[in-house]
Design goal:
Layout (H helix, E strand, L loop, with lengths): L7 H11 L2 H8 L6 H11 L1 E4 L13 E3 L2 E3 L3 E3 L12 H12 L3 E3 L7 H5 L5 E5 L5 H13 L5 E4 L9 H6 L29 H9 L6 H10 L4 E6 L2 H9 L4 E4 L13 H12 L4 E4 L6 H9 L4 E4 L1 H33 L4 H4 L3 E4 L2 E2 L1
Parallel strand pairs: 4-11, 5-6, 6-7, 7-8, 8-9, 9-10, 10-11
Antiparallel strand pairs: 1-12, 2-3, 12-13
Helix pairs in contact: 1-13, 4-13, 10-11, 12-13
């Protein structure tokens, strides 16, 4: 008998069995010893929520107001590269799943379908931008995002270089010829397709494309290029969050890039309360890295987040069943979040933010 997945972990196991080992390592691995990758889950599991009782809650409202507008759930799909590695339809199928769930889909600069192709799906899109050597290309990407109706611009600030991901180095990971960085290249081969002994071709490609000198003045320049809401992703230090707000950020994402950048950085959920307190409601606060359940979403809300980004679980659903698999991920998360809200005595997300939490024995 084939059982329907009951949690995203079921989809993770399905994806692990289905994907080629090198592709699985590419989406699952972290940098260095993967200590931060592991810390993300351990820290989330270390957050206990103190439920309220006799609240008289019969039903809950999971609707959220995000930087680009309303969403059915307090989440968006995190920007993730080269999704055709997981399924032939790649980002198109993932965006269809997000559309069905009523949540935003963030298009990566290095997606394997073009921004215009993904926009044709009709989902609520944000566009994620890396700082490139070619500033003219960045302006072009921003204009394309505006033209197709993206509702927010997300700038990732924690990748001056790609973290040293040992799994990819050992696998000498290389993109297959039929996958390309559709927003940056022609159909021809790139550095991401050239195998080199002991190297990751994807890391080599990003080194050529990304400019590590990205600074605050550059973020200010990006702010001047568009009227779209600006989301700054990759913040862990509260002082950086405050500076982002001063430069016009409409939201910050507390993120350690899923444990794929600085190994030894704190878990995102650990840094979340510091950042939320620092910005003091001046901008929206999102969080990613390690979120796997509706309870995790509730934990993030209780510790100061307005919403979360969902990354790897979307790829697991995409691998398992394309667009329906992604929609299933969000269906599971919705069911889990609704149940968690009810059990915690919360009628809506505002009530969730008033819950007391215990973090590894420390009450907050």
């Amino acid at each position: 008998m084939t059982h329907q997945p009951l949690c995203v972990e079921d989809l993770r196991r399905s994806a692990a069995a289905r994907l080629a080992p090198a592709v699985w390592d590419f989406i699952s691995g972290g940098s260095g010893t993967e200590s931060t990758l592991q810390a993300n889950r351990a820290a989330l599991d270390g957050v206990s929520l103190v439920p309220r009782v006799l609240a008289g809650v019969k039903s809950v409202d999971t609707g959220a107001q995000l930087p680009g507008g309303p969403a059915a759930l307090p989440l968006a799909v995190a920007p993730m590269a080269y999704q055709r590695l997981l399924h032939p339809e790649g980002e198109l199928a993932a965006a269809q799943g997000a559309l069905a769930a009523g949540v935003p889909f963030v298009v990566s600069t290095i997606s394997s379908h073009s921004l215009e192709e993904i926009a044709a799906v009709g989902a609520d899109l944000w566009f994620q931008l890396y700082w490139l050597h070619d500033r003219g290309r960045m302006v072009e990407l921003i204009r394309r995002a505006e033209q197709v109706g993206c509702r927010a611009l997300m700038v990732t600030v924690d990748v001056p270089i790609m973290g040293r991901r040992l799994r990819d180095l050992r696998n000498e990971f290389t993109l297959p010829s039929w996958i390309r960085s559709a927003n940056l290249e022609s159909d021809g081969p790139s550095a991401a397709h050239a195998r080199r002994p002991g190297e990751s071709a994807v890391a080599a490609h990003t080194k050529l494309a990304f400019d590590p000198t990205f600074g605050w003045s550059d973020l200010e320049w990006i702010r001047e290029q568009t009227r779209l809401p600006l989301v700054v992703k990759g913040i862990l230090d509260p002082q950086d969050a405050e500076q982002a707000v001063r430069l016009g950020a409409d939201a910050v994402v507390v993120s350690n890039h899923g444990g794929r950048q600085l190994d030894g950085a704190p878990a995102s959920i650990t840094a979340l309360p510091w950042v939320a307190e620092a910005v003091g409601g001046q901008c929206r606060v999102l969080m990613d890295s390690g979120v796997r359940s509706g309870t995790d979403i509730l934990r993030a809300l209780a510790l100061g987040a307005d919403a979360v980004l969902i990354g790897r679980p979307v790829l697991w659903g995409l691998s398992a069943a394309g667009a329906p698999g992604v929609a299933q991920v969000f269906s599971i998360l919705r069911t889990e979040l609704e149940e968690a809200l009810l059990l915690a005595g919360c009628a809506d997300l505002a009530a969730a933010r008033t819950l007391r939490s215990i973090i590894s024995g420390l009450r907050v």
